[in-house]
Fold this sequence. Notes:
The protein is an all-alpha fold. It has a domain at about 85-154: DNA polymerase, domain 1. Helix content is about 65%, strand content about 0%. It has helices spanning about 10-30, 40-55, 60-70, 85-110, 115-120, 125-130, 135-145. It is globular, with a radius of gyration of 18 Å.
Amino acid sequence: MPAFTIDIRDEEAEALRELARRCSARHHQGALTSHGAIDVHGLLRMLAEDAALVVLRAGSWEASNLAGVLEAHGYSRADNGRHFVNSDDVDAIADEFHDVSRRLRGVLNQEGVNSWADVAGRGRKYWQDARNCGRALLDEIDGELRERGLAWAK
């Protein structure tokens, strides 16, 4: 696996430690987080993975959000002169994702789950029958489980 080494200022390193601590605190408070408790290496790995998705999976919400950050820094055009992603597409994807994500959080809170393993453990049939859990939410849950290497219980 390739490794990259970068030099940063001491204050930036300390800020990254604090950011990782804050992210991990949300996880420890029971929030559903994509990468669990993280340290600085985990934080930077997560950001690098999302940045790579700008090329590997341009339509994903991770890539759309990272492309927005890159565009805010002036890196708004890919080699072919086009934007990383069409800004209208980004808006539509973001709106849909936030709506699905908000509904998903509501369903998960109603059902009292506290981890993705708990979601998987209940089985897909359980979630199909859950109140307010439509096709878009099931697709979102499927994707989240796949990304974490989890499978539905039988």
